[in-house]
Amino acid sequence: MSREQFQECIEECLACVKACNHCFNACLGEENVNMMAECIRLDRECADICSYAADAMSRNSPFAQEICSLCAQICEACGNECKKHDHDHCQKCAKACLRCAEVCRKMVT
Amino acid sequence: MSREQFQECIEECLACVKACNHCFNACLGEENVNMMAECIRLDRECADICSYAADAMSRNSPFAQEICSLCAQICEACGNECKKHDHDHCQKCAKACLRCAEVCRKMVT
Amino acid sequence: MSREQFQECIEECLACVKACNHCFNACLGEENVNMMAECIRLDRECADICSYAADAMSRNSPFAQEICSLCAQICEACGNECKKHDHDHCQKCAKACLRCAEVCRKMVT
Amino acid sequence: MSREQFQECIEECLACVKACNHCFNACLGEENVNMMAECIRLDRECADICSYAADAMSRNSPFAQEICSLCAQICEACGNECKKHDHDHCQKCAKACLRCAEVCRKMVT
User: Fold this and answer.
1) D46-63 burial, b if ≥16 CB within 10 A, otherwise e?
2) Residue C12 burial (CB < 10 Å; 0-12/13-18/19+)?
3) Chains touching C (3+ CB pairs < 8 Å)
4) What is the 3-state secondary structure (H, E, C) of chain D?
5) Residue D92 burial (C-beta neighbours within 10 Å; 0-12, 13-18, 19+)
6) N or C: which end of chain C has fewer CB within 10 A?
7) Which Pfam families match (chains A, B, C, D) (predicted)?
């Protein structure tokens, strides 16, 4: 795995943390919060794993590949939930999640 | 500050993480999630700082006092929000938060 | 998976965070820090995943099993490193890690 | 506080996480690890608070100012330790820490 791949993956994870946390906060302010419950839950799950993954990669963790594999899975679940909702923050979050999932998956193979 | 005080504060922080996360999850499953939005937000804030504080104290962080001071403030805000709600998980969470705030405050003086 | 199993696993993860962070701190104060470098590195890796796993389980994360599976792997690596060293903090940490690995593995099957 | 200020502070915190974790990893591989013990300890402290601060700011935490105030203090301590060492990773880390401390301090006033 090249150093560039690592850097790209760290950046995608950090972009995903920001998108998920922005979406989390915005969902809690929507008119119908009930409809956003699963989105809120997964935004937190996804922000947490992405933050952990970026942290681990930046310290050159010996478990970077396994962590990225888990991260890809959680990002994909969050992206699939977010893309069901029309809100701009959800659509943007879905894109960040699915892109991050793809980059994380490339770290593993 | 005695070793026993440290241990007690770590345990209260970890109990608070569990209560806040349980409340977070339960709030997302309530009938009226709109009413719980502020509780959901503060449960996450409080779980995060308590987890960070317990982690820092257990590695004997040189910043333990400053972290506990911040933790006390966030726990108090979360406890005050939670106690407004009648749900059993909110009432239990309020108690855990306010107890943790008190123990954290004692670390500082 | 029963609620009791979940509770037990959360407790083992939190005990492991405390043992790893205590060992991390003690290793940095040893006479020969060079010899402890791998232990220091893995103590941090293990404390981080265990803290994340306990947090995730306590909010009933839909990814609890996958997280526990990763946690078991990192705990085992840390336990195997720690048990090479005679220091009391390393031996205690090794026991906490290997016990946590075992309990996490039971969550998965 | 403007949205631009927030964004700048998040970016500085994330840059500081990366610099501290890189330095942590590099210090553990130095010939004389004993001399780097305090640097290793503070790198972890600083990476943890910066990661937490960036996470909190990106979800618009009501405690952003208090968290940034604590972050500034820890960044400053880490920067002051790192700048004592000639290693390139320490010098770069010192710069990232002291810049982050400054930006965090501006969030508070």
Assistant:
1) bbbbbbbbbbbbbbbbeb
2) buried
3) A, B, D
4) CCHHHHHHHHHHHHHHHHHHHHHHHHHHCCCCCHHHHHHHHHHHHHHHHHHHHHHHHHCCCCCHHHHHHHHHHHHHHHHHHHCCCCCHHHHHHHHHHHHHHHHHHHHHC
5) middle
6) C
7) Csp (PF03860)
Interface residue C55 vs chain A (CB under 8 A):
yes
Provide the domain limits for residue D13: 3-108
Amino acid identity, position A29 = G
Residue A1 has pLDDT above 70, yes or no: no
- In angstroms, what separates the C-alpha of C62 from chain A's closest C-alpha? 9
Across the interface, whether the CB atoms of A44 and B41 are under 8 A apart is answered no
Q: Is D65 on the interface with B (CB under 8 A)?
A: no
Q: Say if the Cβ atoms of B48 and D66 lie within 8 Å.
A: no
Q: Judged by CB atoms within 8 Å, which residues 32-51 of D form the interface with B?
A: 41, 44-45, 48-49
Interface touch A33/B29, C-beta < 8 Å: no
CATH (domain of A9): 1.20.1270.360
Q: How far apart are CA C42 and CA C73, in angstroms?
A: 12
Q: What is the pLDDT of residue B1?
A: 64
Q: CB under 8 Å to B42, separation ≥6 — which residues?
A: B74, B77, B78, B81, B82
Kindly provide the ipTM of the predicted complex, given to two decimals.
Answer: 0.94
pLDDT, one tens digit per residue, over C6-56 is 999 999 999 999 999 999 999 999 999 999 999 999 999 999 999 999 999
Spatial CA neighbour of C11 closest among C78, C79, C104, C77: C104
Domain count of the fold of chain D: 1
Q: CA B94 to CA B81: how far, in whole Å?
A: 8
Q: d(Cα A57, Cα A6) in Å, to the nearest integer?
A: 7
Name the CA dihedral angle for B65, B71, B76, B78, rounded to a multiple of 10 degrees.
180
Chain C CB contacts of A59 under 8 Å are 44
Taking each helix axis from N to C end, the angle separating D37-58 and A3-28, rounded to the nearest 10 degrees, works out to 40
Q: Which residue has the tokens 């995060």?
A: B48
CA D41/CA B41 separation, integer angstroms = 32
The dihedral region occupied by B2, where left means phi > 0, alpha psi between -120 and 50, and beta the remainder, is: beta
